[in-house]
Amino acid sequence: MERCEGEEPEPAEAPPGSRLVLAFKEFLTSRKGLLLLAQAVLSFIIFICYIASTAAPFMMVPLLTLLLALGFFISYSLKLNEKFRGIYWLLGDCLCGIIAAIIYFSISIAAVSKYTDTASKAAGVLGFIITIIYCAYVYFTFNDLATFLKQEDSPEAPKSQKSDDDSDSDSD
């Protein structure tokens, strides 16, 4: 089959193994992907700092937020939010971000003020930084959530019509 001069060649389909890498790379270039990656990396560093410090009771928070950030990163990269529409991904993501920001802020204050070792102080300072990252993440996620909810309320959205046999009247 010959190609004309103005015609572009057909792109070869990516091998199955590289599709996963391309999905992660595509999501990683987005703002949401970068914020999730920053959350995961900082959570891991804070987790290591809390392990090395005397403020070890706080180490569960960075571990759980690391797992949540990685879970959301993988879910959004594989576009599971588009496949499973029964789950309110944006709402769950926004609520997790709000809760994480509040908890990180409170344990950072406790780590900086109560504990005297350097690792606790470093974890507290990094906790304040990740609180700012979570606040930015919640801001962008909330904007996406508001846009999604406005689309649901628009007059162009198909509304379910109630049929006559589904009525709730007790006239029988």
Describe the structure.
This protein is mostly helical and 172 residues long. It is 69% helix and 0% strand. The chain has six helices and no strands. The chain is globular, with a radius of gyration of 23 Å. The termini are far apart.
Kindly summarize this structure in a few lines.
69% of the residues lie in helices and 0% in strands. The chain has helices at residues 16-28, 31-52, 60-77, 80-83, 89-114, 118-153.
H/E element string?
HHHHHH
Outline: globular
Question: What is the residue-mean pLDDT, rounded to a whole number?
Answer: 81
Largest sheet: none
Query: Which structural class should the secondary elements be placed in?
Result: mainly alpha
* E-strand count: 0
Q: What percentage of residues falls in helices of 4 or more residues?
A: 55-70%
* End-to-end CA span: 71 Å
Number of helices: 6
Which percent band covers the strand fraction?
under 5%
- Rg over CA atoms, rounded to whole Å, is 23 Å
Question: Which consecutive residue ranges, at least 5 long each, have pLDDT under 50?
Answer: 160-164
Task: Provide tags for this entry.
172 residues
Secondary-structure topology with pairs:
Layout: H1 16-28, H2 31-52, H3 60-77, H4 80-83, H5 89-114, H6 118-153
